[in-house]
Amino acid sequence: QMQPVESGGGFVQPGDSLRLSCVASGFDLEKYSIGWFRQAPGKEREGVSCISNIDSSTNYADSVKGRFIISRDNAKKTVFLQMTSLKPEDSGNYFCAVRYTTIPGMCPLIFRGEYDFWGQGTQVTVSS
Question: What is the rounded radius of gyration, in angstroms, for the C-alpha atoms of the chain?
């Protein structure tokens, strides 16, 4: 079964760091762009960051620019999201999404209709 598997979430204090991982289970990571999305209770899912498989170009939401870094290691079949200077508003369930990509271009941070399949999520809570 083709599914990304997220891990690395947890409960941290403001200013702390976390690294999330998205492992490609059952599919070839080199054929897919990967997006990270998050959803807080009562709020719509929002795009956080994504990375292309074609040229490793990246895209970030304005709210996380300068604090989050996305990277991929195709040999390890894993995409990472390094999160630093975490804020309470970063709390939410973080999902990894997969998009089959064959042409260069910036990956989208739109969750409706742009990604092919999704992981189950990993919870991040930032609170003092």
Answer: 14
pLDDT tens for the chain, 128 residues long, are 888 999 999 999 999 999 999 999 989 999 999 999 999 999 999 999 999 999 999 999 999 999 999 999 999 999 999 999 999 999 999 999 999 999 888 899 988 889 999 999 999 999 99
Number of H helices, E strands in the chain: 0, 11
Q: Give the number of other Cβ atoms within 10 Å of residue 8's Cβ.
A: 16
Neighbours of 111 (CB within 10 A): 17
Number of residues that make up the chain:
128
Tokens representing 24 are 């490609």
Q: In one letter, which amino acid is 67?
A: R
CB 10 within 8 A of CB 126: no
